[in-house]
Design goal:
This protein has 3 helices and 4 strands. It is mainly α.
C-alpha cells in the first residue's frame, strides 16, 4: 500500500515538474526581406550570434523567416528583451525620442507607436513611453 502511495506521489511530481509558464508564441514571418536567405537573421526582434552584423531595419521585422528560424532552431537566437516566461524588459529612457508620449521601440505594434521611422538604436531605449502604452493596452509585442 505504501509503495502505491509513493508511486502515485512520484507520478504526480513528474507530471507537474517543469516550468509553470509558456514561452511567448511568435511567428518567424516570411522571406520577403531584401536580405532573406543569406544565412544571417536580419529581424531586429531577435538577438544572439545568429544575427547579421549589419544595421537592423524595421523593414526586416517578420521578413527573414528562413534565416531566423534556422538560427533559432540551432540555439543561436532569442527574443530581444523578452524572458522565457514572456516578461518584457522595457529597457531604459536613453533614446533620442524617449518620454515624448510615443513608443519608438520596434519590438512593439499598436496605436501607442510613433508614426516616424523606427530605428534599431531605439530598441529598449524608450521604456517609459512603451511601458505606459503597453499597460494601457495600446501596444502589443510584434510577435505575429
Amino acid at each position: 500500500m505504501l509503495r502505491q502511495i509513493i508511486g502515485g506521489l512520484a507520478a504526480a511530481v513528474l507530471l507537474t515538474a517543469g516550468p509553470a509558464y509558456a514561452a511567448p508564441k511568435f511567428s518567424f514571418g516570411d522571406d520577403a526581406g531584401s536580405y532573406s536567405k543569406d544565412g544571417e537573421c536580419d529581424d531586429p526582434r531577435f538577438e544572439g550570434p545568429g544575427m547579421t552584423s549589419t544595421p537592423l531595419l524595421s523593414d526586416d521585422v517578420l521578413h527573414d523567416a528562413t534565416d531566423c528560424k534556422a538560427a533559432w532552431d540551432a540555439g543561436r537566437l532569442k527574443l530581444r528583451g523578452i524572458a522565457d516566461d514572456g516578461t518584457i524588459n522595457f529597457g531604459d529612457d536613453k533614446g533620442e525620442y524617449a518620454k515624448d508620449g510615443e513608443c519608438d521601440d520596434l519590438r512593439f505594434v499598436g496605436e501607442g507607436m510613433t508614426t516616424t521611422a523606427l530605428l534599431e538604436e531605439d530598441i529598449m531605449h524608450d521604456a517609459t513611453d512603451c511601458k505606459t502604452a503597453y499597460e494601457a493596452g495600446k501596444l502589443q509585442l510584434n510577435l505575429k
